[in-house]
Amino acid sequence: MNQLNDEPMADVRDMYMVHTMLRREFGLLPQLIRDVAPDDIKRSEVVGAHAEFVCKVLHLHHEGEDVVLWPLLHQRGGEEAEDVVPVMERQHHGIESANAEVLRLLPQWRSTARAGQELAEAFDRLQAALLEHMAMEEERILPLAEKYVTAAEWRRLGEHSLEKSAKKSLPLAFGMAMYEGDREVVAGVLAEAPLPVRLLMPAIARRRFARHATRVHGTPTPPRATH
User: Rounded to an integer, what distance in angstroms lies between the CA atom of residue 96 and that of residue 91?
Assistant: First the structure.
């Protein structure tokens, strides 16, 4: 194992789990929106609430990288990092702009179920930018994180999202990530949590996501991510 100051280094497998969740949910959203009949406000509220939630998850995920990960790689990664981290930062700005555009359009569609095509196209653009970013991050950034970021520092990424999220939303967010997650990776994410959380969270999160997915996607087992 590579070490920095004799510390264990980052296990980045949880990032792949998060990326899989983002690929799935943002991949499904444009068609979910297009499938809502005009003036079906009940359905647009369900899909709109889901869209707002996953946009919030994305924002916090990237904010954690901005605050925690990029400064560490700038500090330690030398030319390896300087060749790619500025690209990641520019992509984050682009994704945040696309996310802001989605959130600008979302309230009116959510309350009227009208102009869905414009919103769906905005989600198409957001998804395209996100897919490009995640692919590059997996290819270029995660190997650097394994090399230059300690396990304790890596955990701060997750802690950032936890601190900024409403506590009632955490089981759903975790269940959304767990849906296609490896059990060993899920256990690793919970390893530092109190024992009751480690024991109860997987089952609670799984049930919460199944109910949510049934309401949003019409099934507790929505289509899996395409890579």
Answer: 8
**Residue 11 to residues 17, 28, 36, 188, 189, Cα–Cα distance (Å):** 12, 28, 40, 9, 10
- 154-201: per-residue pLDDT in tens? 999 989 888 999 899 999 999 999 999 999 999 999 988 888 888 999
Handedness of CA 115, 104, 173, 84 (dihedral sign): positive
Q: Which of 62, 16, 19, 8 is nearest to 185 (CA)?
A: 16
Tens digit of each residue's pLDDT (9 = 90 or more) over 30-63: 999 999 999 999 999 999 999 999 999 999 999 9
pTM: 0.94
What domains sit in the chain, N to C, each tagged with a CATH number?
A: 3-165 (1.20.120.520)
- Residue 198's CB is within 10 A of a number of other CB atoms, namely 14
What is the C-alpha to C-alpha distance for residues 190 and 111, in angstroms, rounded to an integer? 37
